[in-house]
Design brief:
single chain; about 250 residues; mainly alpha; 9 helices
């Protein structure tokens, strides 16, 4: 997992920094009879690499700020009661761009300390992968609660690490994801409160007027949209999300 995560980060930064002026490479795929064990080994390595690349986006998203952002934005949509507005494509797209914005310092550090020296031939592959994973681990450690990390470490059968550098990446990633989900739900609760107050006020007014057959969400939706626009809701939510990673 540690090598996969590092390789994924390197591939992402290399693809983002590639120049179109260099032209597109050609790729030839064929099936033939192997004449030596080395050819079989190479074919298996290519197969493993393609398998890793197929799951690389999911691995990268789960080790960045994407989880917290997409969950909070989904809570905003549900709290307002706008059904599918904004649509899923908009929420996921905004979450991706905010993720790149938040993770830009980490990716820049990976690019400077691992990718560029590796492409220049100054670092071997193994050392480049180790330097690439260090900034990602540092980011996850900053956002991981001590309780979640202690829980995951206690569930393993290995010895308790003496320092954070000894914590395995396979233990750090699920602890980081648990912390992200917990913070996202905490923010979602705070987002729900004002909209819940509006729903309760509208329901009480309708009941006092004897209009119990009229669904309250139909009346409260315009008021919730008006409140969200007046307080610049999207700006507040996005600003709070970005600041929560500092």
């Amino acid at each position: 997992m540690k090598r996969v995560l590092a390789l994924t980060v390197l591939l992402l930064i290399a693809a983002a920094g590639a120049s179109l002026a260099q032209g597109l490479p050609t790729l030839t795929v064929g099936i033939g009879e192997a004449n030596s064990p080395g050819e079989v080994s190479t074919a298996l390595q290519i197969l493993v690499l393609l398998t890793v690349l197929s799951v690389a986006p999911a691995i990268l998203l789960m080790t960045t700020a994407f989880t917290r952002i997409v969950v909070v934005l989904s809570f905003v949509r549900q709290a307002m009661g706008t059904q599918q507005m904004p649509p899923n494509q908009v929420i996921i797209g905004l979450s991706l761009f905010l993720t790149f914005f938040i993770m830009a310092p980490v990716f820049s550090q990976v690019n400077e300390t691992a990718l560029k020296p590796y492409l220049d031939g100054k670092l071997p592959q193994q050392q480049a992968l180790e330097k690439a994973i260090d900034p990602m681990r540092a980011f996850m450690f900053r956002q991981t609660d001590e309780k979640d990390l202690t829980l995951l470490v206690a569930l393993t059968s290995e010895e308790q690490p003496d320092k954070i550098e000894d914590v395995p990446t396979m233990t750090l990633i699920p602890a980081f994801m648990l912390s992200e989900l917990k913070r996202a739900f905490q923010i979602g609760f705070l987002i729900y409160v004002p909209f819940l107050v509006i729903d309760m006020v509208v329901a009480s007014v309708l009941m006092a007027m004897g209009m119990m057959m009229l669904p309250p969400p139909i009346i409260s939706l315009p008021f919730k949209l008006l409140l969200f626009v007046l307080v610049d809701g999207w700006g507040l939510v996005v600003g709070s999300l970005v600041q929560s990673f500092n």
